[in-house]
Amino acid sequence: MDLQLTWFILVGFLLAGYAVLDGFDLGSGLIYHLLTKNDGERSLIRTSIGPVWDGNEVWLVTAAGALFAAFPMAYAMVFSGFYMAIMLVLLGLILRAVSLEFRHRDERFKHVWDLGFIGGSFLPALLFGVAVGNVVRGVPMNATGDFTGSFWSLLNPFALLVGVTGLVMFLSHGAHWLAVKTEAGFQQNVIAFRSTVHWVFVGLVAATTLYTALAERHHMTTNLHRWEGWVALAVLVGSIAWSRWSMIKKKHLAAFFGSAASIVGLVGLAAVGNYPDIVPARGSAAATSLTVTNAASSVLTLKVMLVIAGVGVPIVIAYSAWVYRQFRGKVRIELGQY
Amino acid sequence: MNALTLSRIQFAFTIGFHFIIVPLSIGLALMVVISERRYYKSGVAGDLGAANFWTKLFAATFALGVATGISMEFAFGTNWANYSRFVGSIFGAPLAAEGITAFFLESVFLGVLLFGRKRVSRRMHYVSAWLVLIGAHLSALWILVANSWMQTPRGYKIVNGRAVLTDFWAAVFNPTTVPRLLHVIAAAWITGCFVVAGISAWYLLKKRNQNFARRSLRTALVVGLIMSAAMPLLGHFQAIEVGKHQPVKMAAFEGHYKTGGNADMYALGWVDSGGQKVYGIPLPSMLSILLHAKPSAVVPGLDQVAGADRPPEQIVFQSYHLMVALGILFVLIMLAALGLDLLKGLETRRWMLWLLVFAAPFPIIAAETGWIAAEVGRQPWIVQGLLRTSQGVSPQVSTAEVATTLIAFIVIYALLFLAWLRIFIGIIRKGPEQVEAAEEHAALVHQATHEEA
Fold first, then answer.
1. B-proximal residues of A, 132-161, CB under 8 Å
2. Helix axes B210-245, B177-206, angle to 10 degrees
3. Do residue B88 and residue A304 have CB atoms under 8 angstroms apart?
4. Range(s) of the domain holding residue A198
5. Distance (Å, whole) CA A148 – CA A142
6. What is the pTM of this model?
């Protein structure tokens, strides 16, 4: 397998890892607004993600760093082209990080920090999907690989649909997480909510698929011509069924893993349908898409980084898994927690 | 103002803000390890309260560091797209490595540190503090590798107008990486020591938590004196490399215009860029002596390059001199305070305690001015000698967009700074918690059961 494809897969892996892990933090932040009735329930949600959200967010930081290192042309194009959208994501991430830590140390402004946590979860949860929608659809760019559209052109119907699908995906994933982590009355509310949201998620996935088939046909065709596309599709459909079955059987952890697999399936479909493009050019004929070849870093960089990632990422996964294990089980409010 | 100027202001503001938090959180992480070690060894309630106290201050600071740090990683792509294209093959690698080797370690084990008191053994809790500290230092290593490459690029060749990596180790260990790393880490430790000393001195003045304060003060003064005394040597070590590889920056540090021997240093001064000289108190031939150990040694001046290739002299000169002056002051303060403490005369000299309280933020000012001297001194280059700052900006991001985000950054960062300061001071006012005997007992029982298992 060539280096550039390996790095395409690795960046995809980091992004999928981010969506799966921080995904339930973002979803929990939305449920924080939608479902809680008192400070006790709010504290429960904050404590459930307290020990892990920061590490989860590092998946995004590392994915962005890996994109910069492996495909600098794509990093430069996406981050400068989507300038205002990236800044809004950043605003969300800043607010969330600070709000979660400051909330429990600052009784007087707790409503401000609650708002920061909710808004800081909402902005990234919506905008990540909008970004993926545009990258799947292709963006207008010139010969030097610079974006030629406007902020408002990013908010096209297809990208917005993908954005809403992503938002609901995170919401559903967060509900799966909280069904695992909470108990008694609040858990019952979460479970009822999860059932509805999961159906909405399935409906939106179907709608996005239909929209893609009608308007972004090339993406769908590419997926259907590749066995990897069929695998991703099978993972998506299988995991949705698995989650629903587990929900009926009240196996919350199994349902959560199903939800994680659905996210991986969707990221897989987006990636397989785009390859070898990272960001396809749309519209102007002169422009060439940013592909794994023309956007890539030097071969030496890719090799060195492969060694670092090959050694480092398994270690990260191992100790992260250990930490998750220490915090397994239902959330209890203990000394020194949120 | 155009998008370029605004992007420069935005980058300077956001990273300057981030760099207030960074040395402080590295310094506090050190104190967390020291206090966690005490509790690990003793298992007594007072030590647990102390460990929790420093961890709280660290966590509140770290949160702001994480939040403002993500901005930096995004900023290269958002505002400096052409820079990112130019250096991507080299500069992106340390950023990715920082994520994999440093940020994960810090963030994942901070979770254990904050939430794991009853979930993991006392030993594992102590180990977690070490892992957070190691992560913080690895993070400093990688970002300084990236920064040093911008100052003294090595291990590359230019292909189709872009820097391409040819030798990874040469790029990583370019001439300024090691001196810069030692200099910055020493600065962070000094920052931590001064803040810890300031907090402890304040408790002694208020006659609160005195046993706690005496211990942490002694630790801070000992480590603080060692690091402050080492700093002039570390600074000198780095200055020699700057003199060798960035002679224009070195000349700007001292307002040295005319190439020649017997180059002066200045204790204080004002640069007259029109008249191309410095008014002030000169230390005759000291620049030649410090760089080459010989008064007659020729030191290249600013006249080696055209005016357009020089950094703004005044700001570089003043920030550099303020940093050096503060560095000398730190040695004096630490020496006096530790001396008095050893002679058991510190607590009776309230003025000295007040001096420690007011001096607490000084190392942050020194770090900021040092950073200004290093980065402004590199101008007009974004990568020394290879790419100008003006060539690195994102071509299609509009003035209005950058103006909007700059205003947003200023407003939000100012509010977050005030909130952080309020919480930081609030934690200090509240003081280390008096952990109940029952809590302590529960912790010990938990420990025992873990060991059996």
1. 144-148, 151
2. 160
3. no
4. 3-326
5. 7
6. 0.92
